[in-house]
Amino acid sequence: MPDHLLIIGGVAGGMTAATWARRQSPTAKITVVERGHDVAYAECGMPYVFGGQVPNLDNLIRYQTTELKEKHQVEVLNNTNIEGLDLSRQFVEARNLKTNQTQKLGFDYLVLATGAKANRLDIRENYFNLEGVFSLRHMPDAKAIDEYLKKANPRQAVIIGAGYVGLEMAEALKMRGLEVSLVSRASDFLGTFTSELKKQIIAELTAKEIKLFPAEVLDIRGNKKVEQVVISNSVLSADIVIIAIGVSPEVTLAKANNIRLGASGAIAVKETQQTNFPNVYAAGDCAESHHLVLDKPCYIPLGTTANKQGRVAGINAVGGRTQFRGVVGTQVIKIFDLEVATTGLSLEQANKAGFMAKEITSNSVSRAGYYPGAEKVFTSLVYDERTGKLLGSQMIGKDMVAKRIDTIATALYGKLKIEDLLQLDLAYAPPFAPVWDPILYTVRKANI
Predict the structure, then answer these.
(1) What is the DSSP code (8-state) at residue 89?
(2) Minimal CA–CA distance to 230: which of 93, 222, 347?
(3) Could you tell me the sign of the dihedral formed by the alpha carbons of 117, 120, 126, 132, in that order?
(4) Is 298 a catalytic residue?
(5) What tens digit of pLDDT does each residue of 44-80 get?
(6) Which residues on adjacent β-strands are paired with residue 287?
(7) Which of 17, 222, 249, 431 has its CA 20 to 30 A from that of 77?
(8) Is this structure's pTM higher than 0.90?
(9) Pairing of strands 109-112, 116-118
(10) What is the C-alpha to C-alpha distance for residues 50 and 345, in angstroms, rounded to an integer?
């Protein structure tokens, strides 16, 4: 009888594990158990549906359950929750959330792809009972927001949290015609962006009439439906509230079964995505990654990482041999007309990690200055003064920023030094770059 691979959780980590496991093994039995209805969709695309760039949520769905069965011979049990896990006897108890029927599923190998859950505000417990208060994490959240926007036609939105999802939702709802207020703790406002990036982001948000409130949220009020958000220095009117204050790894099953967690609270994994149990793997937003610059485990939940980890977990669970070496923390976000990108460590993060860090910055242009469409690009490069080791970069501008950060990400992966960047043979033509690319222009200022 062929080995049975059971995957708990779908979407990026779980479904990638399933499809790559099938490529590796034509004979293994593969079952995916997913608590939601949709098992394979692009979570990162959800804000763009609300802003109108993507027509509807159906455009984000990658596979239906029938397709997975027909194309990949993967059995999917959606709308099903895992009620219990017994690692010693190798079975789970699964309950169908629609019929309430339960069944036991045995397995030889297990992949945990349980993802992450949206963080909640530390205020009274029942604020989520108010109509019009949402978080945005999974497809059911997106469907609920979409339905509410169409039915209630809200006019005043309060976004709580100025991270990536908060900023994307602020833009989306503004594009939809709502008045938008963006609230975040002063200490968390715009996260780890440098002061120059924060200044430009704030200027862009202000120009687009997003009201900014660096403040603490004290309460969310209303009579059945949300009406106000009380913050430390004001009271904001609201008929829709989006809470986007980050996520935490969903590790309930792991903790209950002595699967080791790392310092971040996510599941600790080896380069093979194997946990402390030889037949149990973990992938996606429930698992840690190895940070190649810090040389230690970290928790950076991103779709790119989930897909890479899922591939490795799926291949290895059915007998393959491959590794996921780690991440450097590369991220990019569109904020109206701005592209904002980061990779590696900021100056503050690098010094905190014990490096003798130095930052060099420049203002350059995205294309030859005389060519139409050339835009200013601010570039920050961080390196260790003692060793010359490149540590990170942040960039902001309105043109060709997103892909330039990939050059630095590649350099970090290759463990290049700051002086090595000056030797890079980067493409040049007036429509695409100045003769001294912004990266090279910045390195020149280091006087190496």
Answers:
(1) T
(2) 222
(3) negative
(4) no
(5) 999 999 999 999 999 999 888 888 888 889 999 999 9
(6) 267
(7) 249
(8) yes
(9) unpaired
(10) 32
Closest to 217 (Cα-Cα) out of 241, 197, 195, 199: 241
DSSP 427: -
pLDDT (0 to 100) of residue 448? 67
How many Å apart are CA 392 and CA 408, to the nearest integer? 7
pLDDT of residue 64: 83
Instruction: Give yes or no for a contact between 30 and 74, defined as CB atoms under 8 angstroms apart.
Output: yes
Matching residue, tokens 């290759």? 414
3-state helix, strand, coil in the chain (%, to 5): 30, 30, 40
What is the H or E stretch that residue 31 is in? strand 29-33
The amino acid occupying position 422 is L
Reading the block at residue 400, the tokens are 């060709």
**Catalytic hit among 3, 4, 42, 44:** 44
Copy the structure tokens of residue 322: 């491959």
Q: Name the token pair of 351.
A: 């010094």
Strand partners, 119: none
Q: DSSP readout, 29-56?
A: EEEEE-SSS--EE-GGGHHHHHTTSSS-
Tokens of 202: 């704030």
Q: What does the pLDDT average to over 427-442?
A: 96
